[in-house]
Write the structure tokens for this entry.
Amino acid sequence: MVKERHIAEVAFAAPTGTPTGVEVMSLADLRSRAPAGVLQVPARPEFHQLLTVTSGALVHDVDLTGYALAPGSWLWVRPGQVQQWGDVGNAEGELILFERGFLDPDTVALARLDDPFGPVMVTPGGADERKALSTAVDHLTREFPRRPAPTDRHPHLGSAAPARVPGAEPRGRRTADEQPCVPTERGLPALPRRRRARLPPQPLPGRLCPGTGLLVAHPVPATLADAGVNAKEFIDRRVVLEAKRLLAHSQWPAARIATELGFSSATNFSKYFHKHTGAAPIAFRSTTRSRT
């Protein structure tokens, strides 16, 4: 039996009576609230997640890479990245969820909050750093009390509402400024004539592409400097990553993925993907799924 694959898109849901854009929960809370099988579904949160393990071990998958967490290590899942949980029964720890606009602009810039290629795994270097982080978690836990255990399902696990699959949303009309931008075969962004799959958004100047974070002109220089790449490579990396996500976690044929990403044909998409990854799209899908 072939298991149907999709990417569940998960919106932030503040605890009742807490209108702020942050929530703190333990892995024990997570286990008690997760319906069977929900954590194993690939999910694309629309908010930030900071995860730290205090005892035991946990492997957490972010954008097709497995990260092994041990006590003292931290993992950061940014909005738009695709995650899958490992066995949460083997670890204890804390999970901090917060919306994009929760932190002030200076902190956002200092922490590279909007860098789509920022580090996923961080291990504090010294006792002072570990103590400061532990104090911060304790403060957040007191400031933002844990929500009561729900009677059915937890909204941050992608199952309180029907999962949204990229490209399956109602196709309402959009103005030209609202249309997402997509890459051409040359790796440059262009405005599409029809709606495309949504890539993680980024704050970029000029005429924005709301869904993709790609722009008609150029990305923010600071973002490029942080990533250490030029504009074309930055865009190529974003496009290839989204293609990998859809190949790994959806049932869509390569032709549909090509259309969603803005390529004029499946052949052009295949050539582009092979150029940047060294593999044909279907071969990549087969290899990736053989590991899961």
Summary: Confidence is low (pLDDT under 50) at residues 158-218. The helical segments are 27-33, 105-110, 127-143, 221-227, 231-249, 254-260, 266-277, 281-290. Residues 4 and 21 are 33 Å apart (CA to CA).
